[in-house]
Backbone:
């Protein structure tokens, strides 16, 4: 089972090496990496090209103008030749060396269409400091309407599902990842399995979690995602979704 790892970049020179190094350390080797760059003006491309020989032909670098993060991800997916697709952001990195092996084993032995796991948020300037834990759980029918959803950086899905049901809907801006998972899991009920293991370390300050304005915009888009997919949800859903995260954030800051 070949895994395609899509990494969208734009002026990512400060963090890209951490991302690529974490891939190179993986014990599972049947993968390809597609760097979809948005015409960076810093050293991103130079850093990416310096890794080409270390990946032994498994690294593709494409640099072209795009219409934002999710358009870049879609472009990367269009170049993928793997059986399974996963996104590893250019400021994220794998939590340990066995992440891809665990994903492979779970998908193959369980014969499921997608998997997802746990995630840790870390400080931008010191990735040894964990700010928040995202503890996942197994999906059950209607879970999205109750505030549940997978951590998207841990979400790996068979390419045949994206071919059948579509990739990211770029009209959803900062929450296209939520809409994709809602559409695949809740609407189309693709088979899925939760992995109780931390898969990804994510730096704080990403596109969807770094600014209050993006959080508000994201929640509006999430409500629109439910409407688009014909799923009824309470008007109080955003509160139900965000309150546990706010409490956990306060707890982690208090005891850090």
Residues:
């Amino acid at each position: 089972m070949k895994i395609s790892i899509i990494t969208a970049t734009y002026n990512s020179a400060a963090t890209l090496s951490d991302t690529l190094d974490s891939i190179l350390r993986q014990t599972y080797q049947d993968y390809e990496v597609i760097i979809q760059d948005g015409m960076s003006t810093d050293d991103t491309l130079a850093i990416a090209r310096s890794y080409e020989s270390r990946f032994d032909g498994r690294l593709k670098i494409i640099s072209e103008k795009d219409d934002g993060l999710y358009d870049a991800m879609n472009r990367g997916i269009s170049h993928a030749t793997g059986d399974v697709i996963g996104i590893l952001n250019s400021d994220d990195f794998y939590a340990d060396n066995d992440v891809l092996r665990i994903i492979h084993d779970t998908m193959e032995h369980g014969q499921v269409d997608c998997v997802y796991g746990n995630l840790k948020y870390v400080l931008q300037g010191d990735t040894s400091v964990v700010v928040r834990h995202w503890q996942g759980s197994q999906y059950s029918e209607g879970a999205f309407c109750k505030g549940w959803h997978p951590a998207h950086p841990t979400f790996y899905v068979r390419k045949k599902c994206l071919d059948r049901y579509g990739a990211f809907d770029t009209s959803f801006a900062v929450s296209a990842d939520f809409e994709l998972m809602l559409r695949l899991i809740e609407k189309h009920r693709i088979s899925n399995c939760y992995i109780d293991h931390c898969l990804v370390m994510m730096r704080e300050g990403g596109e969807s979690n770094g600014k209050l304005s993006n959080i508000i915009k994201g929640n509006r888009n999430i409500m629109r995602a439910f409407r688009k997919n014909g799923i009824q949800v309470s008007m109080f859903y955003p509160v139900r979704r965000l309150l546990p995260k706010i409490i956990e954030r306060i707890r982690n800051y208090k005891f850090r």
